[in-house]
Design brief:
Blueprint: H1 3-14, E1 38-39, E2 45-47, E3 56-60, H2 76-85, E4 90-93, E5 102-105, E6 113-114, E7 120-124, H3 139-149, H4 160-164, E8 184-188, E9 191-195, H5 203-206, H6 225-228, E10 236-242, E11 246-251, E12 269-273, H7 278-287, E13 295-297, H8 305-312, H9 315-318, E14 321-323, E15 328-334, H10 344-353, H11 356-363, E16 369-371, H12 398-407, E17 414-421, H13 424-438, E18 442-449, H14 454-458, E19 467-473, H15 480-488, H16 507-517, H17 522-539, E20 542-548, E21 551-553, E22 558-559, E23 577-578
Parallel strand pairs: 3-12, 3-13, 17-18, 17-19
Antiparallel strand pairs: 1-2, 4-5, 6-7, 7-9, 8-9, 10-11, 11-12, 14-21, 15-19, 15-20, 16-20, 22-23
Length: 583
């Protein structure tokens, strides 16, 4: 069976999105018909008009990028940036107001072809695709780029390719084993073949993840080279980077628009200003003076809740404020390897103890977040609604939690340390949980970690503490495979780059992941993931907290802004530009 037929089935089953507060017309990379601002049912912008060619877009950010190397970064903001600099075999296209993002070829000519059981996939590269120096991107470069990402010093980002490609988990990386993997085969200059360790009809989705970026095999000589000197295949290249201060992107003159159906790349460049205070960003965006008319707030710096009332009082501000899509679940992971969190009854008690309504309020209120009770997004096909730890108004049940802790041998509570990212909203969420747990005798110390290095810290098993506030998002692939597997499959726990922050290593759960992966009927597979979602929550390794719909502001001269579900629900950097480049 060809991949087109398989992907049609996968896509129909796995991307029926609920796009709350997004009612703009079609257009995607080209924008809706006409150039006017379109608004949603709440009065926020769903599309800010058609941008023109030229000019420089400024992005105001409080958080530095975690890594410029796509093998290493794994958060929504940096993944958004990668789309400007790099290209993959496949990627996502989305038109504002449509029901779902569409997986489309990027460097590849199509979405690949597979053998009958989807364990072998073949892709052909487009002609005319090049790196920033004009050298052609070949199948050897794709193989090298992926195998480079498996180097232990780099493999701290997305782990899907490493999980599914035969032999990748045991491969030491291309610098130690330059002969490479037999499971990634260069057929000819433009054709590459992947051999998987299990059937996977959705493998083209996996190739859209950042570690799938190709790099020139004859130019990269050390693991850290790309982090220090990125090599662009996308429409922009890095001109300068002062960590914590500014990142400047300029046009990659070797990028050929004719080969790229996804990235409109209208601006001449981007200027990312980093390390700014959140209040400063809000005030600059509200006033929109001078060059700030050409600016937008970064993905990690949505409006503070205190700013919302001012925006709602002015229709002109509403028309340049985008409400992001709920494609992430914020949750608190509990380290199941340490006492007393190794006891499921203790973890269940903590689930009852947490006042999720207070977390919603800490996030900015019901307009900006809703409570979460499980780890599958509502738009996942086959998902079943349930709430195993139901409390009145989601406000927690301290009395029940205290009794459960006493029954587990902890009548006087205990002390824990919680890792939290140094972002005001995240800290507010952590403080809300801290107050809830204090009511049942659990004293929580907050360990605030630099925002840029937070994920790397909590993904290092020797560094993480008892609890951690974090989030997990869909990048366009809506299934239990990406939403549950990385978080709860004990066979995927690693010393660094670990996404199973709870370190859940349950024999039954691990076996269930293996069993479900072998199912080729997608409806049946989705039903099994829905049941596994419940089984995981019965073990209570995490406390699901909220699903956010934050607000991002843009300057009055910014067009092409809309919430993109495959960009973690944020404004897509690759689609924005200036309404008037001369203005």
């Amino acid at each position: 069976m060809t991949s087109q037929r398989r992907l049609a089935a996968v896509f129909a089953a796995s991307t029926a999105l609920v796009l709350a507060a997004c009612s703009g017309g079609g257009g995607g990379a080209g924008g809706p018909d006409g150039g006017a601002v379109e608004t949603d049912e709440n009065g926020f912008a769903s599309y800010t008009g058609d941008p023109q060619e030229g000019g420089v877009v400024t992005v105001l950010g409080g958080v530095d990028f975690s890594h410029l190397d796509p093998a290493m970064g794994n958060d929504g903001n940096v993944n958004n940036l990668y789309q400007l600099i790099y290209r993959n075999l496949t990627t996502y296209r989305y038109e504002p107001g449509s029901e779902q993002p569409e997986l489309v070829p990027d460097l590849a000519t199509d979405l690949g072809t597979s053998n009958d059981d989807a364990t072998v996939w073949t892709f052909t590269l487009k002609e005319g695709v090049t790196f920033q120096d004009g050298s052609p991107i070949t199948a050897e470069d794709v193989k090298f780029g992926i195998e480079r990402a498996f180097d232990p010093s780099l493999a701290i980002g997305s782990d899907y390719l490493q999980t599914y490609i035969e032999g990748a988990l045991d491969y030491p990386g291309v610098f130690e084993a330059p002969e490479g993997l037999d499971s990634i085969r260069v057929v000819d200059e433009r054709t590459i073949e992947f051999h998987l360790n299990q059937p996977l009809a959705a493998f083209p989705y996996v190739l859209a993840t950042p570690p799938g970026v190709p790099f020139p095999a004859d130019q990269v000589t050390s693991p850290q080279q790309i982090q220090e000197e990125p090599i662009a295949s996308g429409p922009y290249r890095v001109e300068s980077y002062e960590r914590g201060e500014a990142l400047t992107l300029v046009r990659n003159e070797e990028w050929d628009r004719e080969t790229d159906e996804v990235r409109p790349a209208r601006p001449d460049g981007f200027e990312f200003l980093l390390g700014l205070d959140q209040n400063t960003i809000d005030q600059r965006m509200l006033s929109g003076q001078g060059e700030d008319a050409n600016a937008l707030a970064s993905s990690t710096n949505p409006l503070l809740a205190a700013t919302l009332s001012r925006v709602q009082q002015d229709p002109r501000l509403m028309e340049r404020t985008i409400q992001d899509l709920p494609t992430c679940t914020m949750y608190m992971a509990m380290n199941t390897t340490v006492e007393p969190l190794n006891d499921p009854q203790v973890r269940q008690a903590i689930n009852y103890a947490v006042d999720k309504t207070s977390v919603v309020n800490a996030t900015g209120g019901p307009l900006l977040a809703t409570t979460a009770h499980d780890m599958l997004l509502p738009s996942v096909p086959g998902r079943e609604e349930f709430n195993l730890y139901e409390t009145p108004d989601d406000a927690g049940d301290p009395q029940r939690a205290r009794q459960m802790l006493a029954d587990a041998g902890h009548p006087n509570g205990f002390d824990l340390t919680m890792d939290v990212r140094a972002i005001p909203k995240w800290q507010a969420q952590a403080e809300a949980v801290q107050q809830s747990l204090a009511q049942v005798g659990i004293n929580v110390r907050l360990n605030v970690i630099d925002a840029a290095t937070y994920y790397e810290a909590i993904a290092t098993t020797s560094q993480q503490n008892d609890l951690a506030i974090t989030g997990w998002c869909s990048g366009g692939w809506y299934s239990g495979a990406p939403l549950l597997g990385p978080l709860f499959d004990g066979d995927r726990i690693t010393e660094t780059g670990n996404t199973n922050i709870a370190q859940l290593d349950d024999e039954h759960i691990n076996a269930r992941f293996d069993e479900i992966a072998q199912i080729t009927d997608l409806d049946q597979q989705n039903a099994e993931y829905a049941e596994l979602n419940r089984e995981i929550m019965e073990l209570a390794p995490v406390v699901p907290l909220v699903r956010e719909t934050p607000l991002q502001m843009v300057g009055e001269n910014i067009g092409g802004a809309f919430a993109h579900p495959a960009r973690t629900g944020y404004i897509d950097y690759g689609s924005v530009g200036l309404l008037d480049p001369e203005g």
